[in-house]
Structures are given as structure tokens and as C-alpha cells.
Amino acid sequence: MELTLVSDELGKFTVPLEDPGDDIPYELPEGAVVSIALTFRLGADTDGLIFETIRVREGEDPVARRSALGSFRAGGPYEIRLPPERLPLGRTHCGTYDVTARMSDAAGIEHARVKHRFTLVHRLPGGAVEASEG
User: Fold this and answer.
1) How far is 41 from 4, CA to CA, in rounded Å?
2) CB within 10 Å: which end of the chain, N or C, has fewer?
């Protein structure tokens, strides 16, 4: 139903699940601490629900993160906030990343998938971020 990025520093940002706008990546500052908040419903009882993100940047190995969510009864909405993650820090990590987020269960059945892009931007002294070109 909803995937939201939550940060004490950046606030909340809901990632569009329909037509996520692949041509315009979202900008996030390097080193920001971000949690993913999920809101979802299930059509059937589900055992071993897993949320996984795979982050890919051209020329680098994919970075995968898996979180076991548990078992759920049919219905909802369920709301889960995952532990915070620090985004990569340093100019060498700045650039555009493709991210695939998916929910699957212990049987390997995929329940949801969304793809989006974000650009990691360099922080200037004082916390401001460097403006992207264009």
C-alpha cells in the first residue's frame, strides 16, 4: 500500500508505487540515516514474510538488504518500520542508484515489487547539499 522513507534529518517521503518516475531520480544526501516504513495488506495468511531491497550502481556490486517481517494473518493494514540504515558516505559513492524493493514469503511467492531510482548527492560543510547539474 505504501513505502515511505523516514529520517529525523530529512523528514518523511512517500515513494510512489505506481509509475515511480524512473526518469527523475530522487536526491538524498550522502551519509543520511534513513528507515523504510511499510504499510501493507495481505489477501491470505502468510508465513515468513521478507522485505528485500537491492541497490545497484553502475560499475559496483549490488548491495542487498533483507529483513524478516514475520508471519501475518490475512487483512491489515499492517505497518512496519525497519531499522535505520546509513546511506553511503563520500564523493566516490555519489551518483544514481537503481533500487528494487520486494516482499516475498517463506515459500518464495512474491507479493509486491517496486523499482525506483535515487541520486546520492554530496553534502557541503554546514549540511547543505551540492546542487545537481541541470
Assistant:
1) 15
2) C
Indicate the DSSP class of residue 37. Answer: E
| Interatomic CA distance for residues 75 and 30, integer angstroms | 37
Written as one string, the DSSP assignment of 31-59 is T-EEEEEEEEEESS-EEEEEEEEEEE-TT
| Distance between CA atoms of residues 10 and 110, nearest Å | 31
Under 8 Å between Cβ of 99 and 54: yes
Q: CA-CA distance, 54 to 63, in Å (whole number)? A: 6
Q: What is the pLDDT of residues 67-122, one digit of tens each?
A: 999 999 999 899 999 999 998 888 888 999 999 999 999 999 999 998 888 899 98
The one-letter code for the residue type at 70 is: G
